[in-house]
Amino acid sequence: MRHDDDGLIAADALDRVTWAMRRAEWAAQAWKDQRLRPLGLAAAQYTLLINVHSDPGLTGAELARRLNVTPQAVASQVTRLEERGHLERRPHPRHRHVQELHLTDAGREILRDADAVIVEIERQIAEKLGPEKTSQLRALLDEVADAVRAP
To answer: What predicted TM-score, i.e. pTM, was given to this entire model?
Structure first.
């Protein structure tokens, strides 16, 4: 078995922008998970709740597409959040086999608490970077998102 795969990938493969973005995302997700844990939430659940809050009536399939995860992953999280009383499923007005997702009062309360945690994380990042770099980073990330959406 060969272990000297020189030339298999570029020497700078782990120094690429996409890897830097991924490392930053992993670090941010770990930090969010750690800080949200006392609330009984994972970062993925916060993301799901904030999407339902911003667009009430989303279906599980719509959420899966929006979050770029499998419908099964969404269904699993929705079931957990529903069991905790944070989400409720309601019949879709036009499609009888489709259910819409809505926050409950408890869901709005946990989202408010979780968002305060995320705001604090963002504040700490902005404090570390400073206002100019924070603004630049946001603009650059928006440009990256636009660039990868372009045909």
So the answer is: 0.84
